[in-house]
Amino acid sequence: MLRLQVLALAALLCACSKKEEPAPAAGAQGPATTEPSARKPIPVGLVIDVGGRGDHSFNDAALRGLELYAAGKRYEGGKYVDATPTEVRETLPPHMASLASSIQPLPVKPMVLQSKAQEDYTPNLQLLVDQGAQLTVGNGYMLANAVRAAAQENPKARFLLIDSQVLDAQGKVLKLPNVRTVLFKEQEGSFLVGALAGLVTKTGKVGFVGGIEVPLIQRFEVGYRAGVKTTNPQVAQTLMSVYTGSFNNMAAGKQVAQDLIAKGADVIFHAAGADGIGVIQAVKEARAAGKSVYAIGVDSDQSHVAPDAILTSMMKHTDLAIYQATKDLVEGKFSAGEQVLGLKENGVGMAEVRVDFPGKAEALQKVDALRQRIVAGEIQVPAVPAELASFQAAAP
Amino acid sequence: MAERLKAILPSVLSVLLALAVCWALIAFTMTSGTATDAYLQMLWGGIGNWPSFLDGAAATVLTRPLGESAMKAALLTLTGLSVAVAFKVGLFNIGAQGQMILGALAAAVVGAQLSLPSALHVPAALLGAALAGAAWAGLAALLKLYRGVHEVISTIMLNWVAVSLVDNWLVIGPLRGVAEAGQSITGTAEIQATAVLPRLLGDLSRLNLGFPLALLLALAVWAWLARTRPGFETRAVGLGAEAARAAGVPVARRTGVAMALAGALAGLAGAVLVLGTEGRYPGTLGAPYGFDGIAIALIGNNHPLGATVAALFFGVLRAGGTRMQLLGVHKSFPELIQGLALLFVAGRMVWLAVLRRRQASPGSGPAPAAVTPSTEAPRV
Question: Residue A171's closest chain B neighbor by CA?
């Protein structure tokens, strides 16, 4: 019996070691602010996905919106410190630099809860409401059910749901009077990075790595395909697309990216959360081995993860959406309803291209021309695979 | 009485020591004030915010935290029981996680696909989950009994098979919930209203039938092991299979039944999660309640009621621990406390083992290393 127990402990320790998390920082709210502000800061809550703080992507974008843009704070070692306006400006791509001046710190107090598992979403939202949050943000479509439950249980509290509408038990859209939902036209931003990929590729092969194959992630792929098709129709025919089936499995992302590179892809766009960090790693390693390969990041500007290996990133400005909702709240203008943000509304976009390659200036010019045509409504980027076949746009 | 106290005391001391160490860790990295505040937050988050209730706040400041703790405790009780039952028959069921995943899936499918009146639907979904968990554990038992495969190996492997089969294929593939065009959805289809475990306090908290069910099962398992003949035979097999066989106990049958029971209990944990609070099989069942069950069983000294007490305590800790984040304390501290407590319990075992070896060979060189005959009487 005793030996059995010792064996059990040994095995358990093995099992436990997998759960360790490298990120040292977590949590929220530093000491109460002592700034001489006219009124008490308004508490605003944010529940982020199981990916957690420091994913360099989707969750960090949301944190940026609430902490840096709305509260004017930077999270450092478990506390908030004041951020400078320069830091705000640095997070915006060049064509949006003019927005920097409109992002001013608001009198809000961020309260951030990370989730350990999906079943934490509902209690975490409830906890933030109980702690007095005037607005509570659910970051990601995986929180849709939790936001529905919390919003129905707390009709007086206000919620912002990113990336999904509220759905009822049958999967139909449900309008709740206290929830604002924000959807993005991911296909438009993905179109631009696809157009660039078509211009940059040398091998004539590009790849796409998705997370879980849901309509949301398919929009990335369809837009990307349409972009490649516009600038390089031949490459579009051989475009390789793989779904890892998860958003928190770096190893899976790395594996499929290595496979794509072995098959000759030299530009790989990912829309796979933390799996994408594995994609970037694979590209980085391939570059170290002498191959000329680029990765395209997603959601945030991921250039800093691997400066040489990231061609650009498809930006999804959940940060601005969260800032806007917070601002509306502070100004008493918060309204429920549905927002859909595309290129025109600065909901999506392409990050600054920081790497050098032959013909860079010309390629960027072409991509920018396409961007202007989408903004002007001349190009309708397809969002579902069925529309892809009939999509045609004149090359720039 | 003193005997019983001696059995309980090490676990209690280990838990207290773990709490103290974590307090010191937080105090060391932040301030001692923050550490105390964080512990208070955890307490209020686990057993309800009594000070603010006494100040006149609504009853929900008590019922919500208590409900959350109870629901976490229910899951931990069931997986803890699963591991404890297998221990009693001498098997180490590291596969509670996989059995729970299968149980959760079965509950989600029965809950969503069948149309039954409420009085039948809930039992049907629970039964489905128990059978699925039992079948998954039964695989390991069969491999053990007929092929001699060690159950640690087979149950670990079956955990990964379960994750790959369910999380990585069924839930994102054939069983994915359907939504209106263009909408993304996570997990399987939502269960029907008739399959939802009824809430006990209505809107006041999420406390549902799963909690009393878990407590009832803990009592039943204890009674079965301590007061019935099959239970006695099960323990006899655990203490010495050969001796039990010589005494006429059907060893294979007892082993198989105990393992199936272990699987059924873990499967029910999955059902309580799906039917109680989630309403569907979530996109991924990431929380390692099955692995936590091992810790709960060990801290509870492999006694069904001990495991229940440990589960209640760690349920409070887990539910309340989220609030530590509000003070900037890392989200992993509640798990750290549990891990440390386990480590200290383990330390006690090592200590006992060393002592026993000394006693076995007083001054006559090294003791025979491989054999450590168990001197424990069959007790529960």
Answer: B179
Q: Which residue of B has its CA nearest to A165?
A: B183
Partners of A50 on chain B (C-beta within 8 Å) are: 284, 286
Architecture in CATH for domain A186-315+358-388: 3-Layer(aba) Sandwich (3.40)
Flag if A113 and B325 touch (Cβ within 8 Å): yes
User: Would you say residue A16 has pLDDT above 50?
Assistant: no
What per-residue confidence (pLDDT) applies to A38? 56
Domain boundaries, chain A: 42-184+320-341, 186-315+358-388
| Shortest Cα distance, chain A CAs vs residue B186, angstroms | 6
Q: Which residues between 352 and 381 in chain A have a beta carbon less than 8 angstroms from any beta carbon of chain B?
A: none
Report the complex ipTM.
0.88
User: Between A386 and B373, whose confidence is greater?
Assistant: A386
Q: Which residues of B touch A7 (CB under 8 A)?
A: 92, 152
Residue A212, min C-alpha distance to chain B (Å)? 7
Chain B residues 247-276 within an 8 A CB cutoff of chain A: 273
Spelled out in words, what is the top-level CATH class assigned to the domain A42-184+320-341? alpha beta
Whether A142 has its CB under 8 Å from any CB of chain B: the answer is yes
pTM for this prediction: 0.88
The more confidently predicted of residues A396 and B174 is B174
DSSP H helices in chain B: 2-29, 32-47, 50-54, 60-88, 96-113, 118-142, 151-162, 210-227, 229-239, 241-246, 251-272, 289-299, 304-321, 333-360
Taking all residues of chain B, what is their mean pLDDT, rounded to a whole number? 89
Does domain B68-325 correspond to CATH entry 1.10.3470? yes
For the segment A306-337, what is each residue's pLDDT rounded down to a tens digit? 999 999 999 999 999 999 999 999 999 999 99
Question: Can you list the residues of chain B whose pLDDT is less than 70?
Answer: 1, 361-380
Residue B371 confidence (pLDDT) = 42
DSSP string for residues in B150-202: -HHHHHHHHHHHHIIIIIIIITTTTTBPP-STT----SBPPPPGGGSPPBSSG
Q: What is the DSSP pairing of strand A42-48 with strand A108-114?
A: parallel
| pLDDT score, position A303 | 93
Whether B145 has its CB under 8 Å from any CB of chain A: the answer is no
A44 HSE (CA, 13 A, CB side): 30
